[in-house]
Amino acid sequence: MPIDQHGDAVLDGLSIRALPKVSLHDHLDGALRPATIIELADAAGIDVPETDADDLADWFAEKSDSGSLVEYLKTFDLTTAVMQTREGLTRVAREFVEDLAADGVIYGEVRWAPEQHLAGGLSLDEVVEAVQEGIEEGEDAAESSGRDIRVGQLITAMRHTERSLEIARLAVDWRERGAVGFDIAGPEDGFPPSKHRAAFDYLASEFFPTTVHAGEAAGLDSIRSALIDGRALRLGHGVRLAQDLEVVSRAGEEVLVQFGDLARWVRDREIPLELSPSSNLQTGAIEAWGTLMEDHPFDLLYQLGFAVTVNVDNRLQSRTSLTRELALLAEVFEYGLDDLETFQLNAAAGAFLPVEEREELIELIADGFER
């Protein structure tokens, strides 16, 4: 299914880009416009590998396609470097929201780690305030162009540092001012959620929702820790949960699968999986199954009834959009509009919003797909 010059694709005669969508797993420092990076870097005296926006986009895509999460994460050294001032953070956040709205997203959650943006002398509160200002500017800009979008912050702690409890308190402090949830990110293997149990205990005591990166660069133990130690209401990626599924037999299109206890728990409790197909290929998250999109266990998980959602992870590094991810899946697995609608309804149901607002979001999606 070709993506046109406007980043759109057509399914069953309808524009995928125009369909109402929900984005749950989208990193702020992985969504910068290449031209913005060049401008902010020039103002800050930071060297960039390419001074042309298209060439810089190519550089990010090439460096990110390594098959290793550790190598993939190195590209963020440049993006975070230009996000150390209030002006830079606000601009990046504003453009983040504008780009989501242009892609048909009506609700999004942006995850980012405040502790990575203090080199310019700002405090934790000041960087969160700067990002919130940009989000609100982006929402206003979208509204003025005829698009409605709401974006909430997922305040994130880096799992290889020792600041998770401090960041958890920061998230709770901002819960009425834009923060909707908490996450841990960074190198997963060797840094399980259990190392941050104090932060998760505090968040649980405050009834503050968490999503945890798990099952991307590490396996079932990481997912188990996310659920038990992190009290995760969603799994960031969670793709390696498929390792807890054993295909016993195949007869034509009929597949008999044996569930492990962990997989059955996640499926039966409808814990959303924040799957990011292109990113999962780039980081080697699906290497146990193959290296092509058709090898991704997305369809297996979907057909078995897991609450799968579709996400971009990092739009810049994967040179993608939510429209593109949906188009890729539709082409590879022959999905129709009903399937794409299911993915959006799953995401809406898993959004960190009050139930009344989730129900409203579900109605907007249903109405949009019906039209």
From TrEMBL:
It comes from Microbacterium terrae. It holds the Pfam family A_deaminase. Belongs to the metallo-dependent hydrolases superfamily. Adenosine and AMP deaminases family. GO terms for molecular function: adenosine deaminase activity; metal ion binding. This is adenosine deaminase. InterPro entries: A_deaminase_dom, Ado/ade_deaminase, Metal_Hydrolase. Its cofactor is Zn(2+). One of its GO terms (biological process) is adenosine catabolic process. The lineage of its organism: Bacteria, Bacillati, Actinomycetota, Actinomycetes, Micrococcales. Its EC number is 3.5.4.4.
